[in-house]
Write a structure and sequence with these properties.
flat, 5 helices, single chain
């Protein structure tokens, strides 16, 4: 359970750092940056909470019998999907929240996970850079 929590904390810290960088850039790029910033924070917060909920779901599902774990994980999956849909809907309806900022915020956790795992795998880069000889 500690490894899952450490991964969640590390991922959310990186999302927060990227959020700060994007907020600073938005002040430089946009004239009215507040709706974009609110959308980014809104999407990132919901995405981070969904990531934490996913960890709790998986930890709990591992302790259940297989049929019950499958039903439990599937129901939690649909709840997270519905929450994401509601977030996008609210972002579309609210004038003070930018939809693009919200969607970028929702994808930030996924981006951080993929990028950290991609850049931590040195063998992956060795395989890419390895020269293939003709047979």
């Amino acid at each position: 359970m500690g490894a899952t929590r450490d991964l969640q904390i590390r991922t959310i810290k990186l999302v927060f750092i990227i959020d700060l960088i994007l907020i600073v850039l938005s002040f430089l790029i946009f004239d009215k940056s507040m709706p974009w910033i609110l959308g980014l924070i809104f999407g990132s917060a919901i995405s981070s909470l969904n990531f934490i909920e996913l960890g709790k779901t998986l930890e709990r599902a591992v302790t259940m019998p297989p049929s019950r774990a499958q039903a439990y994980a599937a129901s939690k999956y649909f709840v997270r999907y519905i929450i994401t849909g509601v977030v996008i809907y609210v972002s579309l309806k609210a004038d003070y929240i930018n939809v693009l900022g919200t969607i970028i915020g929702l994808f930030l956790v996924k981006f951080v996970i993929i990028s950290t795992n991609l850049f931590n795998d040195k063998q992956y880069f060795k395989n890419i850079l390895k020269r293939k000889e003709a047979d």
